[in-house]
Backbone:
C-alpha cells in the first residue's frame, strides 16, 4: 500500500469518521456526543468526495450538519435538564450490546472479505464531471421522477406529522 | 482504494450505530445511533455505485440522496415523538417508558 | 254502461269503508263518516235504478279470469238479470234508509263513525254477493256478510249479551256454511267450475259430458242442493239454525232492520233462488218442508214474546220460511217477490220499533237504574236468563198512537201488509202468490206433501196476522201501562221519521207491480226437476204455468200461455204456481183472507176488547204455552245436548290430555331431565369443563411465564432481533 497524498487523506477521513463515531457511542455527555456526530458526518461527506459524489457530499453537509444535527441539539435542549445531559449506561447492557455488536461486525467483515464479486475492485480513477447536472436530469426528467415526487410528499407528510405530534395538546 | 475499504468503514459505522441503539439510555443518543446506521447505508450505496456500475451510472448516489431525505424525515418525526413522550412521561429514557411491559 | 254502473255500486260503499279504515290506520277520522257512507249508498241506489233500465233486454254475464290453479281457472264476474237488479235496488234502498235512520238513532254513540263504516261494508258485501256470477264470489260475499253481522250485532260489545249474541250468530251460521262449502265442492268436482252462468254449472248440468241424469246423478245432485241450502239455513235463520236471529236483536235496531230486511237473511233466500236450476224434486221438497216448518214454528213462538224486537225477529224467521217454501215449491217468482215486499215492510217494522225504543230509551237514560229493570222481569224471564230491556218490553207500552202518530201510522201500514190484508198492501200479493203457488203445485202434482205444506203456510199466515196485531194493540192502543215512561215518550226526529214514511209508501203494492211484470222476471229452467208420475197434467199440455203472481198483476193470459208453450217444448218445467187462472189462486186467496181476518179478529178480542183473556188461555193450555214460551226448547236443546256433549267431550279430551298426553310428555321429560340430563350434566361438568379448565390453566400458566419476555423496553427487543439475525445467518452460513 503506497502512501500517496490521496491515500493519506482517505485514511484521514476514514479514521476521523470511525473515531468520531466511536466517540458518539461512548461519551457520557450527550452534547459532546452530538458534536462528535457532526465530525462523523463531515467524515462521511469527505468519503463521498472520494467516491466522485460531489453533490452527495454537499447534500450530506447541508442536510445533516445544517439540519438534522441542529434538530438533535434542539431535542437535547428541550428534553434534558442539566442532570439529564449525562447518558446512563448499564454495565450488563453494555456487555450484551457489545457482544452482539462485535458478532455483527465479525459477520459483516467476514462477508465483506469472502464475497468474490467484491474482491479487487479498485477505483479506476476516472474523473467524473460535476454530478449536479446529471442528478438533476435523472431526478426531474428521468426514471427517478416518480420516486422523487413520492419522497417529497413523504417529507411533507413527515414534517406536518411531526408538527402535529410535537405541538402542545389543547385539552378542553 | 478498493470497494472493501469503504465497506469496512461502513460496517464499522453500522456496528457502532447498532451498539449505540442497544446500549444508550437516552432517546436522543439512540437517534444518533440511527443516524450512524443510515450514514453507513448511504456510504454503501455511493460505494457500490462507484465500483460496481459503469462510472456514468450514478443511480446509487440518487438513492443515497433519497436516504438522506428519509433520514431528515425520520429525524423530524423521531424528535416530535420524543417531545411527546417527554411531555407524557417526563423522561426520555427508553427503559422508563415501558407501559407495554407484560 | 252495465259494468261501470255495477263498479260504482260496489265501489261506493267499499270506498266509504276504506276511507274509514285507512284513516283509522293513521289514527285519523273523516269528519263526517255518516254523510260519507250515506252519500255512497245514495249514489249506489241511483246507479241501481239506472241499471233497471239497462238490463231489461237480456241477462248478461261479465267475467274476467281471476286465478288459475292447476288446470282450473276461477273467474270473477257480474251476472245481471232482472233478479239481480231488483235485489240491488232493494239492498241499496233499504240500506240508504237505514243509513239515514241511523243518523238519528245512533246520534251521540261513542263509536258513531265506526257504525257507519260497518254499515257501508255490510252493504258492500251484500251487493258483491248479489252481483257475483259464480259460487266463489257468492261465497266471499257470503262470509263478508257474516263478518259484518258479527261486527254489527256485537257493536255494543261492552254488553255481555251483545258479545254473546254476535258470537252465536257467527258460529251458528258457520255450521250452515260448512254444509254450503261441501256442497260447493261437490258441484266443483262434478262440473269443474264454480261459475254459474255462461259455460257454467247451469249449462253443464244438461251436458252429458259432465252430468248424467240417471238415478245416482239425481241423488247426488239432490245432496249437493241440500248442502248448499244448508248455508241458506244458517244465514236465513231457518229451522234448526234459527236461534241466532232473535239474539241478534242485541245489535242496534237499524242493524236489525238491515239484517232482517235487506242483507244477511236475504242472502240465504237469494242463494237458494240462484241455485234454483240445480234443485231436484227431493231437494226442493226438503227446502219446502224446512221453510214450511220454520214459518209455522217461528210464528207460534212469536205469539208469546213480549220484547217488541223479538216478536219482529220471529216474524222475520217465519216470513223467511215462507220464501223458502215458495222456492222449494217451485214458485220462484213468488219467493223473490215476497223477499222484496218483506224487505220493505220488515225494515219499516224494525225502524218503527227502533223509533219506539228510541223514544223510551231517552227516558230510560234519564231514570236509569230505577226499579223498573227488576219489576218487570218476571220469574219466567229469569229462567231463560235473558231479561227484556224495559225500553223494549211491550208490557211497558200502550197508548203510544197519540204520542208518536207517524210511527204509529207507518207501523200500522207495515203490519197490515205483513198480515196480508187484501188488495192495498204489498204483503197480501206476495203472500198470496206463495200460497197460490204451493196450492197450485199441490193440485198440479196431486201431491200430499204440497197440501200439507199449504196447510202449514195457511196456519202461519193466520198466526202472523194474530201476533202482529197483538204487537200493534199492545204498543199503540189501550191505556199506557207505565205512566212514567209514557210521559217521557216523544216522536222521533225527522231523520228517523222520513225513512219510515218512505218505507210505508213502499209497502203499498204500486211499486211492486212495476217490478214484477211478466217480461221482467222469468224463472230459470229446472232441468232435473220432474213431476212425479201421478202428477196432474193439464189437458192443454201445459205442465207448468207462468207466474200466478204475475197474472194477478193483470198480465194477459195469452202472453203467459205463450211463455208456457216455449217452456214445455224444450221439455223443462218453469213452474211458478200453476197454470193460468186455475182454481188454486182463488181458493188460496179466499182462504188467506179468511185466516188473516180471523187472526186480526182474535187479536182484537184478546188484546183490545179484552173479551178473552190471554192469561186464562195460557193457563188452560199450559203445556202448549210453555212450548211456545220456551221457543220449542231449541236453545235448551242446544245448551242441554250440544253444549253438554261438547263440554263432556272436552272433559274427556282434557282427561286424555291430562293423563295420557301429559303422562307421555312427563315421562319423556323425566327420562330426559333426570336420566339423560343428569348423565350429560355430569359429563359436561367433569369432562368438557375439565378440558376447558385445564386448557385455560395451562394457557394461564404459560402466559404468566411468557409475559416476562415482554419487558416493554425497546432496546431489549432490538437486542433480541439482532441476536436472532446474527444467529440465523450463522446457522444458514454453516449449513
Residues:
Amino acid at each position: 500500500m503506497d502512501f500517496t497524498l490521496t491515500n493519506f487523506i482517505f485514511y484521514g477521513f476514514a479514521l476521523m469518521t470511525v473515531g468520531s463515531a466511536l466517540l458518539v457511542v461512548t461519551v457520557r455527555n450527550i452534547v459532546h456526543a452530538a458534536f462528535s456526530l457532526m465530525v462523523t458526518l463531515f467524515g462521511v461527506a469527505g468519503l463521498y468526495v472520494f467516491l466522485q459524489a460531489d453533490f452527495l457530499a454537499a447534500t450530506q453537509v447541508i442536510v445533516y450538519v445544517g439540519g438534522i444535527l441542529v434538530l438533535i441539539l434542539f431535542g437535547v435542549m428541550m428534553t434534558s435538564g442539566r442532570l439529564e445531559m449525562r447518558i446512563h449506561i448499564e454495565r450488563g447492557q453494555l456487555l450484551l450490546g457489545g457482544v452482539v455488536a462485535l458478532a455483527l461486525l465479525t459477520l459483516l467483515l467476514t462477508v465483506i472479505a469472502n464475497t468474490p464479486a467484491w474482491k479487487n475492485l479498485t477505483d479506476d480513477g476516472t474523473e467524473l464531471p460535476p454530478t449536479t447536472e446529471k442528478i438533476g436530469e435523472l431526478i426531474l426528467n428521468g426514471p427517478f421522477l416518480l420516486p422523487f415526487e413520492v419522497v417529497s410528499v413523504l417529507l411533507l407528510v413527515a414534517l406536518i406529522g411531526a408538527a402535529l405530534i410535537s405541538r402542545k395538546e389543547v385539552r378542553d | 482504494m478498493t470497494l472493501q475499504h469503504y465497506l469496512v468503514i461502513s460496517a464499522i459505522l453500522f456496528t457502532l450505530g447498532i451498539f449505540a441503539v442497544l446500549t444508550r439510555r437516552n432517546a436522543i443518543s439512540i437517534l444518533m445511533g440511527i443516524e450512524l446506521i443510515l450514514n453507513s447505508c448511504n456510504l454503501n450505496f455511493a460505494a457500490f455505485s462507484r465500483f460496481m456500475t459503469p462510472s456514468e451510472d450514478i443511480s446509487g448516489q440518487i438513492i443515497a440522496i433519497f436516504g438522506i431525505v428519509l433520514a431528515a424525515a425520520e429525524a423530524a418525526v423521531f424528535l416530535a415523538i420524543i417531545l411527546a413522550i417527554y411531555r407524557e412521561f417526563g423522561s426520555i429514557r427508553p427503559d422508563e417508558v415501558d407501559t407495554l411491559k407484560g | 254502461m252495465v259494468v261501470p254502473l255495477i263498479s260504482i255500486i260496489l265501489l261506493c260503499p267499499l270506498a266509504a269503508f276504506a276511507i274509514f279504515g285507512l284513516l283509522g290506520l293513521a289514527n285519523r277520522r273523516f269528519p263526517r263518516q255518516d254523510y260519507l257512507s250515506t252519500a255512497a249508498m245514495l249514489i249506489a241506489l241511483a246507479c241501481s235504478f239506472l241499471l233497471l233500465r239497462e238490463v231489461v233486454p237480456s241477462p248478461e254475464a261479465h267475467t274476467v279470469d281471476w286465478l288459475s290453479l292447476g288446470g282450473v281457472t276461477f273467474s270473477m264476474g257480474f251476472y245481471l238479470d232482472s233478479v239481480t237488479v231488483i235485489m240491488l235496488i232493494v239492498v241499496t234502498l233499504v240500506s240508504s234508509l237505514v243509513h239515514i235512520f241511523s243518523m238519528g238513532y245512533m246520534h251521540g254513540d261513542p263509536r258513531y263513525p265506526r257504525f257507519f263504516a260497518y254499515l257501508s261494508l255490510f252493504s258492500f258485501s251484500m251487493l258483491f254477493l248479489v252481483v257475483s256470477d259464480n259460487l266463489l264470489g257468492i261465497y266471499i260475499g257470503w262470509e263478508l256478510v257474516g263478518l259484518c253481522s258479527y261486527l254489527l250485532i256485537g257493536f255494543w260489545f261492552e254488553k255481555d249479551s251483545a258479545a254473546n249474541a254476535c258470537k252465536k250468530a257467527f258460529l251458528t251460521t258457520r255450521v250452515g256454511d260448512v254444509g254450503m262449502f261441501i256442497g260447493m265442492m261437490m258441484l266443483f268436482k262434478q262440473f269443474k267450475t264454480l261459475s254459474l252462468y255462461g259455460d257454467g254449472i247451469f249449462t253443464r248440468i244438461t251436458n252429458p259430458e259432465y252430468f248424467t241424469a240417471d238415478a245416482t246423478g239425481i241423488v247426488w245432485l239432490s245432496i249437493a242442493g241440500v248442502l248448499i241450502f244448508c248455508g241458506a239455513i244458517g244465514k236465513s235463520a231457518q229451522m234448526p239454525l234459527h236461534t241466532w236471529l232473535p239474539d241478534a236483536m242485541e245489535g242496534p235496531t237499524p242493524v236489525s232492520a238491515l239484517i232482517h230486511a235487506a242483507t244477511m237473511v236475504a242472502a240465504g233466500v237469494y242463494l237458494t233462488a240462484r241455485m234454483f236450476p240445480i234443485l231436484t224434486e227431493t231437494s226442493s221438497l226438503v227446502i219446502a218442508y224446512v221453510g214450511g216448518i220454520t214459518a209455522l214454528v217461528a210464528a207460534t213462538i212469536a205469539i208469546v214474546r213480549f220484547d217488541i224486537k223479538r216478536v219482529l225477529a220471529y216474524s222475520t224467521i217465519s216470513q223467511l220460511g215462507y220464501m223458502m217454501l215458495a222456492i222449494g215449491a217451485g214458485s220462484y217468482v213468488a219467493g223473490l217477490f215476497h223477499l222484496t215486499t218483506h224487505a220493505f215492510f220488515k225494515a219499516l217494522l224494525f225502524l218503527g220499533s227502533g223509533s219506539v225504543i228510541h223514544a223510551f230509551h231517552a227516558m230510560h237514560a234519564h231514570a236509569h237504574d230505577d226499579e223498573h229493570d227488576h219489576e218487570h222481569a218476571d220469574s219466567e224471564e229469569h229462567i231463560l236468563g235473558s231479561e227484556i230491556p224495559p225500553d223494549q218490553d211491550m208490557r211497558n207500552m200502550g197508548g203510544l198512537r197519540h204520542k208518536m202518530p207517524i210511527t204509529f201510522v207507518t207501523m200500522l201500514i207495515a203490519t197490515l201488509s205483513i198480515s196480508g190484508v187484501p188488495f192495498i198492501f204489498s204483503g197480501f200479493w206476495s203472500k198470496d202468490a206463495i200460497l197460490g203457488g204451493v196450492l197450485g203445485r199441490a193440485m198440479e202434482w196431486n201431491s200430499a206433501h204440497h197440501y200439507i205444506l199449504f196447510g202449514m203456510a195457511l196456519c202461519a199466515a193466520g198466526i202472523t196476522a194474530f201476533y202482529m196485531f197483538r204487537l200493534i194493540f199492545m204498543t199503540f192502543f189501550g191505556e199506557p201501562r207505565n205512566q212514567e215512561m209514557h210521559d217521557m215518550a216523544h216522536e222521533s226526529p225527522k231523520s228517523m221519521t222520513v225513512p219510515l214514511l218512505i218505507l210505508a209508501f213502499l209497502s203499498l203494492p204500486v211499486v211492486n207491480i212495476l217490478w214484477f211484470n211478466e217480461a221482467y222476471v222469468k224463472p230459470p229452467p229446472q232441468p232435473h226437476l220432474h213431476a212425479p208420475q201421478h202428477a196432474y197434467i193439464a189437458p192443454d199440455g201445459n205442465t207448468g204455468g207462468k207466474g200466478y203472481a204475475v197474472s194477478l198483476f193483470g198480465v194477459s193470459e195469452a202472453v203467459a200461455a205463450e211463455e208456457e208453450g216455449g217452456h214445455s217444448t224444450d221439455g223443462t218445467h218453469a213452474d211458478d204456481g200453476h197454470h193460468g187462472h186455475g182454481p188454486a189462486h182463488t181458493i188460496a186467496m179466499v182462504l188467506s183472507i179468511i185466516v188473516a181476518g180471523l187472526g186480526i179478529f182474535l187479536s182484537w178480542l184478546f188484546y183490545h176488547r179484552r173479551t178473552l183473556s190471554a192469561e186464562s188461555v195460557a193457563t188452560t193450555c199450559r203445556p202448549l204455552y210453555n212450548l211456545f214460551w220456551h221457543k220449542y226448547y231449541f236453545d235448551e236443546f242446544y245448551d242441554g245436548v250440544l253444549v253438554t256433549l261438547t263440554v263432556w267431550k272436552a272433559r274427556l279430551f282434557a282427561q286424555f290430555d291430562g293423563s295420557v298426553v301429559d303422562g307421555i310428555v312427563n315421562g319423556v321429560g323425566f327420562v330426559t331431565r333426570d336420566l339423560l340430563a343428569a348423565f350429560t350434566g355430569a359429563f359436561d361438568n367433569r369432562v368438557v369443563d375439565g378440558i376447558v379448565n385445564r386448557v385455560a390453566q395451562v394457557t394461564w400458566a404459560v402466559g404468566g411465564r411468557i409475559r416476562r419476555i415482554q419487558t416493554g423496553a425497546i432496546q431489549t427487543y432490538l437486542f433480541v432481533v439482532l441476536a436472532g439475525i446474527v444467529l440465523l445467518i450463522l446457522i444458514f452460513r454453516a449449513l
